[in-house]
UniProtKB/TrEMBL annotation:
Lineage: Eukaryota, Metazoa, Spiralia, Gnathifera, Rotifera
UniProt protein name: Uncharacterized protein
Top-level taxon of origin: Eukaryota
Organism per entry: Rotaria sordida
Length: 508
């Protein structure tokens, strides 16, 4: 376990901390502390990742005989291939065989000079000759041992298909091309090739249909295969898809778990820095004061004037570049990235692009003073609008209420409605936003309307055919108003005026 001392006076605390071996460092910068904690988490993950020696040894002992039994048929099949090609004494035997098993019979063309003419001719031209039979036997064993040993459903699936013509076709294809069509998940590839019998060799060589199918099903799942009504096949394909996504999902969850820990720690540290700036570490109403501050900004401190030391209260309200203001802005910035940016990478990039601008600091300051007052019911859209419309500065929030007008106009009228606020933005930027050459505002509006529109579409019993919900979302983000309509016919008529589709289908 590593202990860090986070303080204001590094030299004083280093003197006593040096006596304790578990104190890893004394730091005064929050960024340095966060960086050190993240590094520790990564190191810990690396150390804890492999299984312990005892567990590995126990597993090795338990599985020793299984491994020997599994390796034996594969070695026999491999030796049979070596004999068929007359390579027992050949010095480059291993290179040729490894290439053959990885890339199939077609790879032998690179080694033509290494074979006797008769052996090479038979190997390349006899589709039911000794080499193809031996290769098919090897790959069949590989399917069962390497992929089936931990997936009994896959073994049963292979047995069911073994006596079919299509099973032999898939084996031949594998013998010819090796792992070319196995992609990054051989189990899923084999299941697809066996269950979808209509995809024969010409779909691999000419139309590349298998690649299209692979991309579709790994991206969109079973729904990407139309008219696939065979329940038994659907079940086995679903299991294969589970095996495909399992390692990717687990890796993502593990990373997300670590990220969550780091994110939580970063916010806690930033919050603690605010507590220290107000000298509230031992205060009994600390949580109430801090929660109010984070929700309603610096203006909320007027309620707690009696709870704070006079000089701290005065500094908190009057020092625009003081400790509290800096700490509060740091917390808000972290919250933007963690709470809103992690699930919206475009928003994260948008923040990075604007980070060094004067207006970015102005928006942070405004949020520090007023808290969530101007974030409305959708912070992402509010932050995007405040950063884009530089002409709407603080006086337009306090005096003319121009930001409220902008908010209601754009949430009622969509992207196109920003033309009404051309005085607050240069013409070039506005045109880029309207034409979606700079798509950030369009993306923010899509996320704002998404839950509202989808709820209305579902309530209106409008089916999501041919990605209609997303198409409708694009339309509403651009023009709005539709999500407020009550009638199904009105909504369809409205959306149809922007995107051509068969309204009769949606009304069925």
């Amino acid at each position: 376990m590593s202990i860090y001392v986070y303080c204001m006076n590094k030299e004083t605390n280093e003197k006593w901390a040096s006596k304790y071996t578990k104190v890893k460092a004394v730091v005064v910068q929050l960024d340095e502390l966060i960086s050190r904690i993240m590094t520790d988490h990564n190191i810990k993950k690396t150390i804890e990742g492999p299984l312990s020696t005892n567990r590995v040894t126990a597993r090795a002992e338990a599985g020793k005989f299984d491994d020997v039994a599994d390796d034996h048929p594969l070695k026999l099949a491999k030796n049979e291939i070596i004999r068929v090609l007359d390579l027992e004494e050949h010095e480059t035997k291993d290179e040729i065989i490894n290439d053959l098993l990885e890339n199939g019979r077609q790879s032998l063309s690179k080694y033509k000079q290494e074979f006797a003419p008769k052996v090479y001719k038979a190997a390349m031209h006899e589709n039911d000759g000794p080499l193809m039979k031996s290769l098919k036997k090897y790959f069949e064993q590989l399917w069962k041992i390497e992929y089936g040993s931990s997936n009994q459903w896959f073994i049963l699936f292979l047995k069911e298909y073994k006596d079919t013509v299509h099973y032999d076709s898939v084996l031949k294809r594998t013998a010819e091309y090796g792992n070319k069509y196995s992609k990054d998940s051989p189990i899923l590839s084999i299941v697809l090739q066996l269950t979808l019998e209509s995809i024969d060799d010409k779909f691999f060589d000419e139309k590349n249909a298998f690649n299209d199918l692979w991309c579709a099903i790994t991206s969109n799942g079973l729904k990407s295969i139309k008219d696939f009504s065979d329940k038994k096949k659907r079940l086995v394909l679903l299991q294969a898809l589970c095996e495909y996504h399992r390692p990717k999902l687990f890796e993502l969850l593990e990373k997300r778990k670590l990220d969550d820990v780091v994110d939580d720690e970063a916010l806690k540290l930033a919050k603690h820095e605010i507590i220290r700036a107000l000298d509230l570490e031992e205060h009994e109403t600390k949580d109430e004061i801090i929660n109010d501050l984070l929700e309603n900004g610096l203006r909320s401190l007027s309620k707690y004037e009696e709870e704070l030391l006079p000089y701290i209260y005065a500094a908190a309200l009057n020092e625009k570049d003081g400790k509290l203001r800096k700490s509060l802005k740091k917390y808000i910035e972290l919250q933007w990235k963690i709470k809103y940016g992690l699930s919206n990478q475009w928003f994260m990039k948008f923040l990075e692009d604007h980070k060094d601008t004067v207006n970015y600091n102005s928006v942070l300051n405004r949020t520090a003073i007023y808290g969530n007052k101007w974030l409305k019911d959708f912070p992402i859209l509010s932050i995007v609008l405040q950063l884009l419309f530089e002409g709407i500065d603080d006086k337009f929030f306090d005096e003319t209420n121009a930001f409220n007008d902008l908010w209601h106009t754009i949430t009622d009228g969509g992207l196109k409605s920003i033309e009404k606020f051309s005085n607050y933005m240069d013409e070039s930027t506005m045109l880029k936003l309207i034409n979606k050459k700079q798509p950030v505002l369009f993306q923010a509006l899509r996320e704002y309307y998404r839950p509202k529109l989808f709820k209305l579409l579902e309530k209106s019993q409008i089916p999501d055919k041919d990605n209609f919900y997303e198409v409708a979302l694009d339309s509403v983000a651009e023009y709005a108003n539709a999500y407020k309509m009550q009638g199904k016919l009105d909504l369809i008529e409205y959306l149809g005026s922007f995107y051509p589709f068969d309204t009769k289908i949606l009304l069925q």
